[in-house]
Amino acid sequence: MLPFADIDFYLLFALIVPLLYVTKLALRHMVGFGSAITFISLVYVVVYYPKPVQLLTFTAYQCLFTWVLLFKWRKLHGLLGSLLLALPMVLVKLKWEVDVIGFAGISYITFRCIQVYLDREQLRDRFRFSEFISFLLFTPSLLAGPIDRYERFKSDLDQGWSRLNGAALLAGWEFFILGLLHKFVGAEIVDRYWLARFPQESTALADMSATMYGYSVYLYLDFAGYSLLAIGLGRMLGIELPKNFDRPWLTDTAPDFWKRWHISLGDWLRDYFFRPIYKSLSGVQRLRTWPLLKQNIALFSTFLLMGLWNGLEAHYIISGSLFGLYSVAYNSHQHRIRKYKRDLWGRTPAWAVKAISIFIMFNLACFALYIFSGRFPFLH
Amino acid sequence: MNKQHTFQRILKWTVIYVVLALGMLWLHDPRLVSMDAAMSSVKFVYQQF
Predict the structure, then answer these.
(1) At what angle are helices A205-236 and A350-373 packed, to 10 degrees?
(2) Which of A176, A198, A225, B32 could, after both became Cys, cross-link A182 (CB 3.0–4.6 A)?
(3) Can you give the residue range of the structural domain that contains A212?
(4) Closest partner residue to B33 among A7, A19, A177, by Cβ?
(5) Distance from A19 to chain B by nearest Cα, in Å?
């Protein structure tokens, strides 16, 4: 059973969470909090997760190479090390021997390993193997994030059993209830009574528009709901997973959209892809006098990678490229304003500019997500 | 101010629970939930602890 997908998952954790709180006083004298969390995650993976052999083999590969890269091959270039860690995920995405190594959630474990590797200078002294396994396999975030950071996760584990308290339980419960509401009521209504009414293959503008807005709302409710469930269960288990959505439809610029939509992925891509690319482009002699071009290349590559990560199908690549183009256009426009001290909006009141920007960004984001969905009829 | 905040919070969560309960009853028929899954989960956790 996948996390949050089956009734038995909820029942399992409806038993585990109260048991953990009830037996906390006895357990704290016997085992560490980190060990208990690792035990729960491992038991779930071994007994309940689909394809546990593949997942455990992959985790062993990642643990081995992360350790080797951290402590033995210290001088290896960061890009080569990252590619080594990303290799199984790339092979799965290329559909090479999928059944042998593929399993749900491979990308998110890979992202976590690359984060630890690229932050190796700060993390080397604090790296603990059992905590790392717990970080990779933590049940609520195993399948689809939010993508946590090792140092943040470890700081929660370091606080020990005191993480399990009434405030954490209540906060987690509230996130959990909101997640259920988003995913099992909101998304379900949109799917059944909105999306199902419009034929996907129709090229009529009204049908396409209805599908475009419907899918965007559905994806938001479904994914934000899933993230809220993961955050809620994580909090009840004493781990404060990062926020993943923050009212994304109120965003007025393309870069801001990715600070509000799938935040943990946006932050990960910024820190471990955009910045290294921009830094390496800064070393290219010919680009030294072209700061805008450097930024735009790094921005576009980041969003293109995001599209490619979802799969090699045209709709994913075009969707990623669209988000890249939005960001490049906004970045170039901002550069122009700074350079010529002249704004496109002239004397338009600030509130009107904000409202128009939100409207434009909402439609642009919906269009890119519509392409992403694979439902755009002209791409079939 | 504090009283108003508490009242708003109670109101907000009452609405959320009511919408959730009605929505779940309407969209996910509880009679279709398999009890086999429930029994296997209970049995497994019981064995572990």
Answers:
(1) 90
(2) A225
(3) 166-244
(4) A7
(5) 9
Chain B closest-CA separation from residue A93 CA (Å): 32
User: Do A116 and A43 share a domain, yes or no?
Assistant: yes
Task: Kindly provide the b/e burial profile for residues B11-31, where b requires at least 16 CB atoms within 10 angstroms of the residue's own CB.
Answer: eeeeeeeeebeebbeeeeeee
Which residue type, as a one-letter code, is found at position A301?
Answer: S
Note the residue count of chain B. Answer: 49
Are A102 and A219 in a shared domain? no
Same domain flag for A11 and A105: yes
Residue A374 gets the label, from left (phi > 0), alpha (psi -120 to 50) or beta, of left
- Number of A–B residue contacts, CB under 8 Å: 51
Across the interface, of A43, A174, A188, the residue whose CB is closest to B27 is A188
Q: Which of A225, A244, A263 is the last residue of a domain?
A: A244
Are A99 and A221 part of one and the same domain? no
The verdict on A38 and A184 lying in the same domain is no
Helix A106-118 vs helix A52-71: crossing angle, to nearest 10:
10
State which of A162, A188, A215 marks the end of a domain: A162
Write down the pLDDT at residue A200: 84
Least confident of A20-29, A58-67, A174-183, A283-292: A283-292
Q: Please report whether residue A2 resides in a domain.
A: no
Verify that A187 and A106 share a domain, yes or no.
no
Q: Distance between CA atoms of A229 and A170, rounded to whole angstroms? A: 13
Would residue A99 count as lying in a domain?
A: yes
Residues of chain A whose C-beta is under 8 A from some C-beta in B? 6-8, 11-12, 15-16, 19, 23, 43, 47, 174, 177-178, 180-181, 184-185, 188-189, 192
- Evaluate if pTM is beyond 0.80: yes
Q: Which two tokens stand for residue B30?
A: 């509880």
Tens of pLDDT, residue by residue over B3-33, are 888 999 999 999 999 999 999 988 887 666 6
**Residue A83 within any structural domain of the chain:** yes
Which tokens hold the place of A41? 């995650």
Are residues A273 and A215 part of one domain?
Answer: no
Residues A132 and A257 in one domain: no
Report the domain count for chain A: 3
| Rounded Cα gap, residues A153 and B37, in angstroms | 31
Chain B hits for A192, CB-CB cut-off 8 Å, are 27
Residue A123 neighbours by CB under 8 Å, 6+ apart: A70, A116, A150, A151
Q: How many angstroms separate the CA atoms of A330 and A254, rounded?
A: 7
